[in-house]
Design a protein that fits this description.
Radius of gyration: 37 Å
Shape: elongated
Number of helices: 14
Distance between the termini: 91 Å
Strand order of the largest sheet: 6-5-4-3-7
Length: 418
């Protein structure tokens, strides 16, 4: 070993001397230096707490907390105890229906934004004391970003309410019974998402302008780490990006809309509640809401039951060989019974109406009844009509004094060996 190596192992330094010496060893390297700097910062926690006590103004903090978390309560009390008892004695209005609630929520949100910005400035002061120095524009950036994000959220909410009013009478606006679903139609959803992107871009430009961020410097900094960061970001955002693209394609192709009842290839049946950026929410027949990724839905075969105006009822009737001579008469009888029982039966030739003897198996003969009706599938009317078809088949079998064939049981016996 060389002299430096022998001195390192012959007279090892205590850990605090190693931290203060400012030199790196071949055993610890940069990781040790970073850890040493972190431990140095821990020693300055007490001065940092003293700095927080020095910076924080209790009066300002109380005022901000009162505005951010107490305005709504005070407004409710003012509405119920003062306004309703003095100005609205004859027609008192609940707080949730008054405009006072809207304005009090705005004031509360502004107060909460101020509280977050205040906490950000306190945190920056604490980090500065313990040795983690940030740019001087950091407090301004945090404050501006907080208010800008809140403002963008309010603009997005106002945008959604305006779009709902515009598309309220649109023919594609989804309806469920007599209640209009709160979601937008397909066109409205596309407009809403495009406007959200525009709002986000405008908000980013405003924040950068107010914080005097030089775009050239930012782009240069991003390009300097583009190689590694693009790999990490690309891997982490691959699935969300795929979901967003597939969700947009679902809206553009208009395969289904909120309020439609769909059936997937795996047998999942449900009513579409919403089509989000990343997934689609279905309300299944058991009233359980299921969220399915958009990429999974886009790759499956989808049957939009709500857009079908006609339905099919197909039954296979198993009959005994003892009644084989009666089958031609049974076929005519089933046709007459189905026609009498199902007024929505399609008989114009656009869809088939078949009752045929189809096969002869070992233990039965088969008659297939294939009918189509002017009734949407998977509805209450459909299931009632399906029941009428089966009753008509059973009535025809009974009138012809025939019996259904039961599955034959075949038993095998092991040969007895003497």
């Amino acid at each position: 070993c060389n002299s430096s190596g022998s001195s390192l192992f012959s007279s090892p330094l205590p850990i605090h001397d190693l931290m203060d010496s400012g030199r790196e060893t071949f055993l610890i390297g940069n990781v040790g230096t970073t850890f040493a700097a972190f431990l140095k910062g821990l020693r300055k926690i007490r001065p940092g707490m003293e700095r927080i006590i020095e910076v924080v103004d209790p009066v300002d903090l109380v005022v901000i907390l009162t505005i951010g978390f107490g305005t709504a309560t005070m407004a409710r009390w003012w509405n119920d105890k003062v306004i309703n008892k003095t100005l609205r004695r004859k027609r008192p209005k609940d707080f949730s229906e008054s405009k006072l609630k809207f304005f009090s929520e705005l004031v509360c949100q502004l107060g909460q934004c101020s509280f977050l910005a205040y906490l950000g400035e306190i945190l920056l002061s604490f980090l500065d004391v313990i040795g983690l120095h940030l740019p001087r524009s950091a407090p301004r950036f945090i404050t501006v970003s907080t208010y800008a994000i809140w403002g963008a959220g309010r603009v997005s909410t106002f945008k959604t309410s305006v779009l709902k009013r515009i598309f309220k009478t649109h023919p594609s606006f989804p309806k469920h019974g007599s209640k209009v679903l709160p979601s937008l139609p397909i066109t409205g959803v596309l407009f809403s998402r495009v406007l959200d992107i525009i709002i986000f871009l405008i908000t980013s430009v405003i924040v950068m302008d107010l914080c005097s961020v030089k775009v050239g410097v930012v782009i240069k900094s991003l390009l300097s780490v583009a190689g590694f960061s693009s790999l990490i970001i690309g891997l982490s955002l691959r699935d969300p990006a795929t979901q967003i693209i597939e969700g947009t394609s679902l809206l553009l192709l208009d395969r289904f809309r909120p309020g439609d009842k769909i059936k997937l290839a795996d047998g999942t049946v449900g009513r579409v509640i919403s089509i989000g950026w990343l997934d689609t929410t279905l309300a299944c027949t058991d009233d359980i809401h299921v969220r399915i990724p958009n990429s999974e839905i886009a790759s499956k075969r989808i049957s939009n039951v709500s857009r079908a105006n006609r339905s099919q009822v197909k039954q296979k009737v198993r009959l005994r060989y003892d009644d084989i001579d009666k089958i031609p008469k049974l076929v005519d009888g089933i046709k007459e019974e189905v026609k009498a029982a199902c007024p929505k039966l399609v008989l114009d030739g656009s869809r088939p109406f078949r009752v045929h003897w189809r096969s002869m198996a070992d233990d039965h003969v088969s008659v297939v009844v294939d009918t189509h009706h002017d009734i949407p599938p998977m509805t209450q009317l459909f299931y009632d009509n399906q029941e009428r078809v089966m009753i008509a088949i059973a009535t025809a079998v009974k009138k012809n004094r025939m019996k259904f064939a039961l599955p034959a049981k075949i038993s095998y016996r092991e040969p007895v060996v003497d």
